[in-house]
Design goal:
- The protein has 616 residues and is of the alpha/beta class.
- Helix content is 50%, strand content 12%.
- It has 26 helices and 16 strands.
- The strands form 4 sheets. It has a 6-stranded parallel sheet with strand order 3-2-6-7-1-8, sandwiched between helices. A 6-stranded parallel sheet has the order 13-12-14-15-11-16.
- Helix 5 packs antiparallel against helix 6.
- The chain binds adenosine-5'-triphosphate (ATP).
- The site of adenosine-5'-triphosphate (ATP) has 19 residues, from helix 2.
- Keywords: ATP-binding, Helicase, Hydrolase, Nucleotide-binding.
- One of its GO terms (molecular function) is 3'-5' DNA helicase activity.
- InterPro entries: DNA_helicase_UvrD/REP, P-loop_NTPase, UvrD-like_ATP-bd.
- It comes from Sphingomonas aurantiaca.
Amino acid sequence: MMLKRIETEADKKVRACLDEKRSFALIAGAGSGKTSSLIDALARIRETDGARLRRDGQRVACITYTKRATEVIRTRLGFDELYLVSTLHSFLWGQLAGFQEDIRRVLIEDRLPAQIAKAGEKVTKAGGHTQEGQRQQAKIIRFQAELKDLQLVPRFTYEDSEFSNYAKGELGHPDIIEIGSYLLRTNRVFRRITALRFPYIFVDEAQDTFKGIVEGLNLVCAGEGLPLVGYFGDPWQQIYDGRAGDFAPPPGGETITKTENFRCSVSVIAFLNAFRKDVEQYPAGDNKKRQGRVAVRLVRAEKGLGKRNTYTEEQVGRALEHMDNALSAWGWKDRDDVMKLLLARQMIARRLGFSALNDLFNDGRMASSRATDAFEEGSHFLLTPFLSTICPLLRAKEEGQPHRVNEVLRRESPAFATDGENANRSLRQMLEASKAAIDDLHKHWTTQTVGEILRHSAKTRLINVSDRLREHLAREPRAEVYDETLHAQEKGDWLADAFFAMKPDTIAPYTKYILENSAFSTQHGVKGEEYDRVLVLYDDTEAKWNVYNFNKMLTPDTCGVPTDGQLDKSRKLAYVSFSRAEDELGIILFTPNPERAKAEMMSRFAMREEQISIDS
Ligand SMILES: Nc1ncnc2c1ncn2[C@@H]1O[C@H](COP(=O)(O)OP(=O)(O)OP(=O)(O)O)[C@@H](O)[C@H]1O
C-alpha cells in the first residue's frame, strides 16, 4: 500500500526526456513503482503540452498489457479524454480499421501465404496420411479458398476474438499483431498517421509486447522531437515466449534505470541484488524500516520413480511433507497469509483435489506440451466452457445468486444473449428460461460424464462451442488402443475421449483454482502481485527438464552449468517469484547434494549460515 509519493531520480530523468521531447526506455526492477512513474509521465504531458494537443485534436497513447491495467490507469488519470489508454490489440485495431485496403493486401501478400506455408510444413512433418496431416491439409484448402474470397470481403472486422474467418472478413488476435507489425514496418503513410494522432506513445510492460511492434513504434518515433515513445518495463520479468524481452528506445533515445524498491524488505532486496546484477536496488519507502527475512531450505532430492522419471503419488506426498516441515521451521505453519508458489501443478492439484484432471493433461501419451501449457494457463479448448460458463453458473446457483446466473448467461451463452432471438423476450420469460436451464445443467452435472455435460450444453446453446470442440464432440470415440508410432500426431483425440469419459468432480476444484486467488499459485501466475510472505518451491524432478533447471541456475558448481536457455528462463521466473515478497521470502530447493548446495548458495548469494537449513 502506497503511503506517500516520493519523486525518484528516474522520474526526474523521464521528465527531462519529456520536456526535451526525446524517446526513452525506463528499465525498472521489481517493486520500483513502474505504474507510478508511468502515471507521472502521462500527467506531465497534460501540464506541459495538454492544451496544444487538445486544440490540434491529438492524443497521448498509453498501451497496456492487460484490460485490468487499462482500467487502473484510466481511473488514475481521471478518465481524461486527452489519453487513449488501451491494450495493444485494441490500440492497433483503432489504427488499422481505417486501412481496409491495406489489410486486404497484407492478408493476400503475406499473412495467408505464411499460414499456408506453415500448415504445409506441418503436413510434411506429420505425413499426409495421418489425421494431423489431413487436418493441416484441410486447413490449407480452407486458407486457399479464403484467399480467393478475400477480394470480395466488403469490410474487415475485429471483435476481440482469438479466431479468424477471413472469408467473412473476421480477424483474430494474432492477425492484429501481424498486420500491425507489417504495416508499421512497410507503410510510411500508416506510420505518419499514427504519429499525427499520437505525438506521445507510451508502452507499459514493454518486455511483454511483441518484437515487431517495438521495432515498428521505433520507426514511427525515429529522429528528433515528436513523436516520442516511452517504454516502461523490466527485461527480467519477461516470462512468456515470443515477446520483446530486451526493449530499447529508437537511436538517440535514453535508457533510464530505476533503482528504487518500494515493496520488499531490506533482507529481500539484499537477496535480489545478489541474484540480479544489472540493477542494484535500495529500499526507498517505508520498507527501509522492515528488516524482513530470506530463508532457504535444502531438501535431498529423490529420484523420480514414476512415469518419465517424475514422482509417484507417494513421492509427491513425501515432497509435501518436506514443505510442511519448512513451514513449521519458519513459523509459518498456521498462518494463512503465506503465498506458496509451485512450479509443478501436480502438488497443487493434489492439495486442492484435481489430481485426476491434472494427471490427464500431464500424460505425455495423450497431451502435447502445448495442451499441458494450455491446461496450466486455463486456456485449453476442452476446459474453457467449464471455466467461462458451466462452473461459474453452477457456483452462482449453489450460492443462491440469481443475478450472477443471469450475468454469466447473458455474457457467455448464445441462447441467452440479449440481442438476436432474445430481443423480444420479456425479462420474466428470460428469468424463467434461465432457471430451467440451470436446474437442468445441475441435474446433468450430478449424474453424467464430462462429455455428456458438454454435449448437452452445446445442444442447448448454453456454451460457446469452438470449432475444435465441436469436431471432437461430433466424432465417435477412437476405438484403437493408442499407439505412439501411429497416432502421435492425433493424440488430442485420445485426450478428448479420456476427458469426455471423466466424471466432473475434479473439474470444479480446478476451475476454482484457476479463477480465484488461493494460497497456492504457479510461479507464472503471480506477475505484478505482491504478498507479505512468499514460499517458492523448486523441484526439478517435477519441472520441465529441458526448459527450466533451478538447481543448475542457483548452484551450477554443485549441479552443473545450465544451458543458456535454461539459465535465462529459470532466472527470470525466479526473479519474478522472489520479488513478490514484501516481508519474508522462503525458498525450498530439492537438491541432490544439500551440503554442497548450502556452501555454494552462501557464497553466491551472500547468505549467512543460519539462513540456510537442511532437511534430508
Ligand atoms: N513513488 C513511490 N513512493 C512510495 N511508494 C511507492 C511509490 N511507487 C510505488 N510505490 C509502492 O511500491 C509498491 C510497488 O509498486 P508497483 O507494484 O507499481 O511496482 P512495479 O514496478 O510494478 O513492480 P513489479 O514489476 O515487481 O510488479 C506498491 O505497493 C506501490 O504502492
